[in-house]
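I'm curious: can you give me some protein's one-letter sequence along with its backbone structure tokens because I've never seen that pairing?
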Amino acid sequence: MEVGNTTRVTVFVLQGLSNNPHIQVVLFVIFLVIYLLILTVNLLMLLVIRTDSHLHTPMYFFLSHLSFLDAFYSSVIVPKLLENLLSKWKTISLLECFTQISLVIFSGGTETCLLSVMAYDRYQAVCHPLLYVVTMNKKICIGLVGASWAIGMGTGLLNTILLAQQDFCGPNLIRSFACEFPPVLLLACSDPYMSVASILTTMVVLGLGTFVLVLVSYTHIIMTALGIDSASGQNKIFSTCSSHVLVVTIFYGSGIFRYMTPASGSALEQVLSMQYSVVTPLLNPLIYSLKNHEVKAALRRMLTRKPRLTF
């Protein structure tokens, strides 16, 4: 569409993962299976936590929100990816693109906050066990989760509104399989200063800020664990926290590198985007279930529970 002498972009085109029809069919099957697995394992985690009274603790309350968020996060990306793999014209409207960007930033921002909250929860449980019940009471847990969702929503809206105010006059090819902030910003014809400043501030304050909180929490946890004479006590602490450390490493490693480096549309950027939007939501519940004895025990109890017949 032309306004005066300026051509305005009305749709974007997603580059996708491949232009080969046969490869696209294979990729469609692979990602459909992965997506169904993501929904299954995360909803199963939610069900186990909800139905087993042994898991009605702050740690699993936070984990249930993380599982829901992972299922939501992948649902923002994968359905459109599956549609484009079977579509000849891989177009996406500006409104749909900006909505996807907003939800991606919202999901990522919320997850960074939740991961830092979970690290703080472990810090209180290990370093101040006698005060844990008081410090992490129900009201505080709900407040921390509510604040995480609110911060994620605020950062998603702010960054997307600033991006939407940019002029897009062509080209309109997004060098990615989804609408993400870095590759879309590359297509802006106007000065992107405000958008760049906004996303960098978000990454420094929210990304690196929460990462520092996680590091501080686990530094205190490690110091406390090393001060325990009992080897079994140390093993219990490290086994409880190892799952969370692994999840944090995967998420922050791919997310920060993806958003803190200049976008170029390279294959590495595609891999990183795939990791935190598709692979991580699948790995998170598997990591927490396979490395957590309480979750495995709760899952066994749920699977072996006999149904009650009522007349």
Summary: Confidence is low (pLDDT under 50) at residues 1-5. The longest strand covers residues 11-14. The first helix runs from residue 21 to 51.
